[in-house]
Design a protein that fits this description.
By secondary structure, the protein is of the alpha+beta class. It has helices spanning about 5-20, 55-60, 65-70, 120-125, 135-140, 185-190, 195-205, 400-415, and strands spanning about 25-30, 40-45, 50-55, 85, 90-100, 105, 110-115, 155, 160, 165-170, 170-180, 215-225, 240, 245, 250-255, 265, 290-295, 295-310, 310-320, 390-395. The longest helix is centred in the C-terminal third of the chain and has 17 residues, at about 400-415. GO terms for molecular function: peptidoglycan binding. This is LysM domain-containing protein.
Length: about 425
Amino acid sequence: MKTPDKPIFYLFLILASSSLFFTATTAKSTIEPCSSNDTCNSLLGYTLYTDLKVSEVASLFQVDPISILLANAIDISFPDVENHILPSHLFLKIPLTCSCVDGIRKSVSTRYKTRPSDTLASIAGSVYGGLVSAEQIQEANSVTDPSVLDVGTSLLVPLPCACFNGTDNSLPAVYLSYVVKGVDTLAGIARRYETTVTDLMNVNAMGAPDVSSGDILAVPLSACASNFPKYASDYGLIVPNGSYALAAGHCVQCSCALGSRSLYCEPASLAVSCSSMQCTNSNLMLGNITVQQSSAGCNVTTCDYNGFANGTILTMLTRSLQPRCPGPQQFAPLLAPPDTVPKDLMYAPAPSPDYDGPGSIAASPGSSVIPPGGGSLPGNPANGPAGSISTAATVYSFSYFFIMFLISISFVFSC
């Protein structure tokens, strides 16, 4: 067989490597369409890019530092806990309010003040761990020249979130926006958060169980839902399994035990001024439970939290006859504020992810374009949520392809 002419052969190498250089993989993000002005509780899965105080993490997302600790079942009774330094690569769940903006669910309450050497890419990929892309920040702030960022500029950072009516297969759920790591599989994510591959595929409108580094998935977490009246300021409160939430101006602490669907609320341990927490026509206080065995069963009386309205803590006395008396109230275990990330377990309060390698920050999607039609997966459960997919082109292995390109050129000129 005739040997190819070398210049032609090496020219072919140049073209091949160039085509690889410009080939982009696709980072996907789940988009939930919406048409109302309602909001919901949601969570972000965030990996710290450096050591940060609890208050500094809270400042990044403009949320209450105590709410971050409770969402991760971290004990807030430790002295000066808001200034506790959290270690780099720690995985946290960040609670935030999910709104309906321009017809899709997103959070627009986060602003970032630029610092020296910041770029849109570093803000998106490092500071916010790939939860947003540089293009999304550029579009949200009408930045004409992304190479020029004045120090101290306040940038809106649009963040992903999902509500899906606060349910998953007709049961209470809170949705976690999770950035896929390079070692993740859909089966591993499903196992980690105690759901199924089918459920994740339905929620995220996936045609196949394939994920790539940088994809952002909406992950349903089992939760305990409230039944407060609509006039309560905390109407719709929902707490994920294994975590806590503050209500009534930090006066009330609500929890959802592992595997439970029943919200339990009691006075919070914080030293704040609160209205009365006693149930009307009873000497029981909020969170108190009395039981009395009888021949017919067990008479249970509880003083329940019923929301916060006009500065008043609403309580409700509930009486029921149950077949047997309930045992002691179960709580999600509280953890000490962490100083290190354990080698054998990536820190993430229940449901606890398995350790899946060093806590490297996932690559940021390069851009986000909402397609005109949603790629919904056929055969969704009757009451199962389904979003659509936003795709973002991201060029990976830049150095590899550039080196190949240079090698090809050097071969040509050496001939």
